[in-house]
Amino acid sequence: MKPGRRSRALPTKDVPPVSDLCPGCDSPEARTLFCATDRLYRTTDKYFRVVQCGNCGLIRLFPQPSPDELRQYYPQDYWFAARPSTAERLEQMYRRLVLRDHVSFVRSALRDSGEQGVVLDVGCGGGLFLRMLKEFGFRVAGLDVSLEAAGIAWRDNSVPVVCATLSKAPLLRESCSAITMFHVLEHLSEPVSYLETARELLRPNGRLIVQVPNAVCWQFRFFGGKWNGVDVPRHLINFRQRDLENLLHHCGFEVLRCKHFSLRDNPAGFASSVAPWLDPMARRVRRTGESPRQKLVKDLVYFGLVVAAVPFTLLEAACRAGSTIMVEARKKS
Fold first, then answer.
1. What phi and psi, each to the nearest 5 degrees, are found at residue 287?
2. CA-CA distance, 250 to 149, in Å (whole number)?
3. Full-model pTM
4. Which of 14, 124, 146, 211 has its CB 3.0 to 4.6 Å from that of 326, i.e. a possible disulfide?
């Protein structure tokens, strides 16, 4: 795969040679696709190299930041609203609308599994998705590494959330009917350990629901390093469908179905690739100074971009090249 437009390249002397092993196949061979920086949140002006394995084709950030460095690239209120307002309430109404296909996908998986137990959402943020599942009568729980996000989930959405990693989740073995990971695996340096823990927590016929950006989507081919889905430097691995399926197979899962369109993610990702400075969440995180009128105008322009992107994102998804992949899997028998 050769992404189209390239981000600003770094001088060779400023870029370390590729010498670590591919996490997918242990090959030392890799080629540089592009160099990019944090376009969305502007947490750093440092440029990072994105490389592709010469053997299996896995795309990854190189070199991976240390855990201490990586924490600097996650804003405090990353992916959740810390200060409710009229605008935030309107945004929540919109989020409820676009989350319906996520809820529908998980409900279908739970119905097919026939299992009873807790639905655990890993990286749950403010807990709106869990609240929507709870409204259908499911037992739910969330995990998030942010104490602020966990507090918002408890207070605003009335769902139980623990501030912890999956390996330290206070849950019994085989206690979960489903585990969801929406845009989690691409942030992990060692996704295998998360998936192995998920396998232990799932009921015998439980379901694992995973969603990641799709590294062979049309958007990546068009935008290259400016595609919102690579989200440098927070995304450490950029999965293609076969990469994700191979990883799940290695961790003891079999894939049951895949979905390439998300009303929440695909059109909005296109809009944020075109104009990251208009992304409402990015503006909030960066605390962009703007009057109420300016905010309204920017929100309307951004929403117009999202709506305009819907036909294109539906077409790419119909061609199995949508900008996200959502997978339902179960434990191998």
1. 50, 50
2. 32
3. 0.90
4. 211
CA distances from 112 to 108, 206, 324, 328 (A): 6, 10, 23, 11
Torsion of CA 290, 291, 292, 297, to 10 degrees: -60
> Where are the CATH 3.40.50.150 domain residues in the chain?
86-331
Structure tokens at 290: 């703007």
Hey, what are 138's tokens?
Answer: 């499911």
How far is residue 38's CA from residue 276's CA, in Å, rounded to a whole number? 10
Domain covering 86-331 in this structure, CATH number: 3.40.50.150
Picking from 264, 269, 213, the residue whose alpha carbon sits closest to that of residue 100 is 264
With a CB cutoff of 8 Å and minimum separation 6, the contacts of 317 are 260, 261, 266
Residue given tokens 């409204």 in the structure block: 135
Single out the residue of 297, 146, 324, 301 nearest to residue 239, CA to CA: 324
Tens of pLDDT, residues 147-196: 888 888 999 899 999 998 898 888 999 999 999 999 999 999 889 999 99
Which alpha helices (H) appear in the chain, and where do they start and end?
67-71, 86-98, 100-113, 128-134, 147-157, 191-201, 218-223, 241-250, 266-274, 280-285, 292-318
